């Protein structure tokens, strides 16, 4: 039987290809001759095989679900360990923050500290890049009867973005910190050194005029300075980055390339305003003219006097 089966299998293998070709050609010819019959036969075959495929797919899908469940449990275990570590770290920071808050409150009571008033702010939507005089500016839709004025500080949800320079009836223009006309007094938090952040029409403004011998360090935080009375101290600006050319730059917290809304804060400051925005002093009254004085007589008009004569003996 084994010896007969081997030639039989070889014969079947040789004939399988011609038979399949003949079936395919016959199916094509039948489809050309009677398409509806082929469609009915295909649907009957599909109706017969669909339960089989459904039964076969159930264990396959169950295996896939089991693998996904095991993978999710492993990821959940790893995520749980990470969250436990992060929670412990946050608990330590919370304890330190509570201690610092109590110490700060005690020192303020001892110093009779007067807190700064809470600033007023208004939120406006960015509608366009303003262009015009400034290369890095945005236009805000303010609406009628707004309370926006020149000099207000603009912040996004991350940090300092710019300052209001022009105000219209229904709009306002904000000069961004990256514009070449922007000059912002800042403080480098690590060394408490003061400097100027100057825009350069690039993504990162540059740091200038810091004290000699106190170079900014990579990664130091930069905040606004109250120098000049234009900004409140401590507004978050960015971090120090040194460029490949050796220039100290500030990587801003604010995402100036994707501004949607800006908050305009009124800190009640008016330093470093444009000339047209600065309040003008009232005109000074002219002093009254001095009374007219009588001119002294000239020598020719002076009365002649007779010199006294000495007595003769």
List keywords for this structure.
2 helices; single chain; 35% helix; 6-stranded antiparallel β-barrel; disordered C terminus; 313 residues; 6-stranded antiparallel beta sheet; alpha+beta; Thrombin, subunit H
What can be said about this structure in brief?
The protein is of the alpha+beta class.
Helicity level = 25-40%
CATH architecture of the domain at 120-266: Beta Barrel
**Fourth-tier CATH superfamily name of the domain at 120-266:** Rod shape-determining protein MreC, domain 1
Structural class comes to: alpha+beta
Poorly predicted runs are 274-285, 292-313
Number of strands: 12
Order of helices and strands: HHEEEEEEEEEEEE
Query: What is the number of helical segments per DSSP (H or I, 4+ residues)?
Result: 2
Beta-strand percent range: 15-25%
Please name the CATH topology of the domain at 120-266.
Thrombin, subunit H
Distance between the termini: 195 Å
The main pleated sheet reads as:
6 strands, antiparallel, barrel
- Output the CATH class name of the domain at 120-266: Mainly Beta
Rg from alpha-carbon coordinates = 44 Å
* Strand line-up in the sheet with most strands: 1-2-5-4-3-12
Average pLDDT taken over every residue = 81
Shape: elongated
């Amino acid at each position: 039987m084994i010896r007969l089966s081997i030639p039989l299998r070889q014969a079947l293998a040789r004939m399988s290809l011609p038979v399949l070709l003949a079936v395919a050609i016959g199916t094509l010819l039948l489809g050309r001759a009677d398409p509806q019959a082929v469609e009915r036969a295909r649907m009957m075959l599909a109706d017969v095989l669909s339960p089989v495929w459904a039964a076969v797919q159930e264990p396959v899908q169950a295996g896939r679900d089991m693998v996904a469940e095991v993978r999710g449990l492993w990821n959940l275990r790893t995520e749980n360990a990470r969250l436990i570590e992060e929670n412990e770290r946050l608990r330590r920071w919370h304890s330190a923050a509570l201690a610092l808050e109590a110490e700060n409150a005690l020192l303020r009571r001892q110093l009779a500290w007067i807190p700064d008033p809470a600033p007023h702010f208004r939120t406006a939507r960015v509608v366009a890049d303003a262009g015009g005089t400034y290369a890095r500016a945005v236009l805000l839709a303010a609406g009628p009867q707004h309370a926006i004025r020149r000099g207000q500080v603009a912040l996004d949800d991350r940090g300092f973005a710019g300052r209001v320079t022009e105000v219209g009836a229904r709009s306002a223009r904000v000069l961004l910190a990256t514009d070449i006309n922007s000059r912002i007094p800042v403080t480098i938090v690590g060394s408490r050194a003061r400097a100027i952040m100057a825009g350069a029409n690039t993504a990162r403004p540059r740091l200038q005029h810091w004290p000699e011998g106190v170079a900014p360090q990579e990664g130091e935080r930069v905040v606004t300075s109250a120098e000049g009375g234009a900004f409140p101290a401590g507004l978050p600006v960015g971090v120090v980055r040194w460029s490949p050319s050796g220039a100290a730059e500030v990587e801003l917290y604010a995402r100036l390339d994707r501004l949607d809304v800006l908050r305009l804060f009124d800190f009640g400051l008016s330093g470093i305003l444009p000339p047209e925005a600065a309040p003008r002093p009232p005109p000074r009254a002219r002093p009254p003219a001095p009374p007219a004085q009588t001119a002294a007589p000239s020598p020719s008009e002076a009365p002649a006097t007779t010199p006294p004569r000495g007595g003769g003996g």
